[in-house]
Amino acid sequence: DNGNVVLDTSSIQLNMIWVANSGQGTISKINTATGKEVGRFSLCNDPSRTAVDSLGNAWVACRGDGKVIKLALAEDDCVDKNNNGTIETSSDLNGNGVIDGGEMLLEGQDECVLFTVQPDGSGGSGCNLDANSEGCARALGVDKDDNAWVGFWNSKRLWRVSGETGNALQVVQIPANPYGLAIDQDGIIWVSGRGGSKLVRVDPSTNDIQELAPDQDCFSPYGMTIDENGAIWIANCCCEHVAFRYQPSTNQWNKVAVEARPRGIAADGNGYVYV
Fold first, then answer.
1. Is 25 in contact with 65 (CB distance < 8 Å)?
2. How crowded is residue 169: how many other Cβ atoms within 10 Å of its Cβ?
3. What gap in Å lies between CA 188 and CA 140, rounded to an integer?
4. Whole-angstrom distance between the N-terminal and C-terminal Cα of the chain?
5. Would you say 80 and 169 are in contact if contact means Cβ atoms under 8 Å apart?
6. Residue 201 has pLDDT above 90, yes or no
7. How far from 226 is each of 44, 244, 245, CA to CA, in Å?
8. Cα 120 from chain centroid (whole Å)
9. 223, 253, 267: which is closest to 49 by C-alpha?
10. According to the model, what pLDDT value does residue 131 have?
């Protein structure tokens, strides 16, 4: 209150990876230092995409019902919703490195699930490529303000969801069905438009949209990432088996041959891209 700087002595462990178990409707939290599962959460119909915010909290987007969920990394950030003085959450009670049996709570009971929302509506009967139902979440990323951007396949919409409340803050219509999403250092949203075979650039401050594609007979964008230099990398699944690189500063495309049907792709901080 008198203007002094006060240092927070608390700390959090960021060495966690969040893994979608699509067939089980769950998300696993795994300690990357030990390889042990330390949490598992029953969430929705077909959780698919995951992302993390600046504090390591997880966002989950679900294909089957269009749910968007935020999970707290640290138990201190979980919410005692029933006011019983205890945080009810999954934990490895027997120490075997796996959440099993009664160690996982039923959907809606785990208090480290901060909120569940459906900004684009329910997925109805499912989210197949040819489905007409809305609510099929297939792309997810977190911006610098720790709000999530979620792409929905059938409606071709991107929703910005508040990290504080789960409320929908903004919606952008795009000219492709989104399958992957990444946000660059300038806040530009890049979308892997598998439906429509386009790389879509979205400026959320103006809603300006650009459609991009390599001079290529077969462009089948799937997973995507952004490297430390701001280049956009795309796994080109299902036809020519390459990884594409798009350099926004020069508007140039390059490619490198990889094994058949590349889908997942990620860049590290040492100049390497993993496909």
1. no
2. 16
3. 14
4. 51
5. no
6. yes
7. 28, 11, 9
8. 16
9. 223
10. 47
pLDDT at 6: 87
Q: Report which secondary-structure segment, H or E, holds 151.
A: strand 148-152
Calculate the dihedral angle through the C-alpha atoms of 55, 182, 18, 236, rounding to the nearest 10 degrees: -160
Q: What percent of the chain has pLDDT over 70?
A: 95
Structure-token match 């002094």, residue found? 4
Q: Report the pLDDT averaged over residues 207-216.
A: 94
Phi-psi region of 83 (alpha: psi -120 to 50; beta: other; left: phi over 0): left
pTM recorded for the entire structure:
0.91
66 near 134, Cβ under 8 Å? yes
Residue 191 has pLDDT above 80, yes or no: yes
Could you give the maximum distance between any two Cα atoms of the chain, in Å?
A: 66
Distance between CA atoms of 260 and 258, rounded to whole angstroms? Answer: 7
Residues 275 and 265: their CA atoms lie apart, in Å, by 4
How far is C-alpha 118 from the chain's CA centre? 15
pLDDT tens digit sequence for 1-33: 889 998 888 777 789 999 999 999 999 999 999
Stretch 110-117: mean pLDDT, rounded? Answer: 98
Give the pLDDT band (50/70/90) at residue 123: low
Q: Which of 153, 146, 173 is nearest to 46 (CA)?
A: 153
Spatial neighbors of 157 by CB under 8 A, at least 6 apart, are 120, 151, 171, 172, 173, 174
The dihedral of CA 86, 90, 94, 95: what is its sign?
Answer: negative
